[in-house]
Amino acid sequence: MTPDVLVVAPERFDVIAATTIADLIGASISMRDTCSVALCGGATPEPVYRELTHRSINWASVSIYFGDERAVVPDSHDSNFAMATRAMFDHVAIPGNQIHRMLAERADRGTAAREYDALLPPRLDLLLLGVGPDGHTASLFPGSPAVTEPWRRVVAVAAPAPPLLPNVARMTITPLVVAAARHVVVMVRGADKAAIVQRVLEGPDQPANLPAQFARSGTWIIDQAAAAQLQ
Ligand code: 6PG
Mean pLDDT by 10-residue block, N- to C-terminus, for the chain (231 residues)? Predict the structure, then answer.
């Protein structure tokens, strides 16, 4: 499957990513009167979410989900929900009951994952993803049992031990949710991602070792630094 790749200048990354996302949300609302969007975490999307708040979006028709979450309280610095709140939810009129936080901090993360699985729509209209330097996406890490999960759509997982990433305990969507999404947008920027972007997009198909390959058929928005090793 040939990925749809947009290589953009770093200074245009947030605007182009926000425009792409806003257009997909608008198209979904036009066709289905609603849009279910799953957000990703990390550093890359935060300025994109801030830029999104300046777009003309009918937020009352948007339902927000998360692709993954760390096992932290919702106001923790490491929380993807906290990042999305300060960048977006605090600035737009999304009804509170349309924002579905992953309760990854619950002691029984397995039960919390099952409950989140039950509230996910059969198909997300839009799934936003990032890519880690090891090729992970959401909290699907290389070699994790979650990358070959045959039935469950949301599972409790353990990230590789620091220093690669903060917060080992997490909750994540599985590849089943990526495959079912109507649209997937992957956002990657920075020279430190150039090698992994080349392996994911142009290397041999090995999603169990490079889980970001589950999103290879999506729209990839990549800045010039992260695209530097693409042929
Ligand atoms: C998370 C994210 C994760 C992220 C990548 C890239 O919870 O950490 O969902 O999958 O998208 O690690 O993160 P950066 O954008 O910070 O490089």
Answer: 88 98 98 98 98 98 98 95 98 97 97 98 98 97 97 94 68 98 98 98 97 98 98 93
Ligand 1 atom at minimum distance from 40 CA: 9
Cα 187 to averaged position of ligand 1 atoms, centre (Å): 10
CATH number of the structural domain spanning residue 66: 3.40.50.1360
Residue 142 lies in a domain: yes
Q: Provide the whole-model pTM.
A: 0.97
Query: Ligand 1 pocket by C-beta < 6 Å: which residues?
Result: 40-44, 67-68, 80, 130-132, 136-139
Q: Does residue 231 fall inside a structural domain?
A: no
How many CB atoms within 10 Å of residue 184?
A: 25
Asked whether residue 228 is domain-assigned, the answer is no
Q: Decide if 131 contacts 68 (C-beta within 8 A).
A: no
Nearest CA to ligand 1 atom 12: 132
> What is the atom index within ligand 1 of the atom nearest the CA of 190?
17
As for how many domains the chain has, the answer is 1
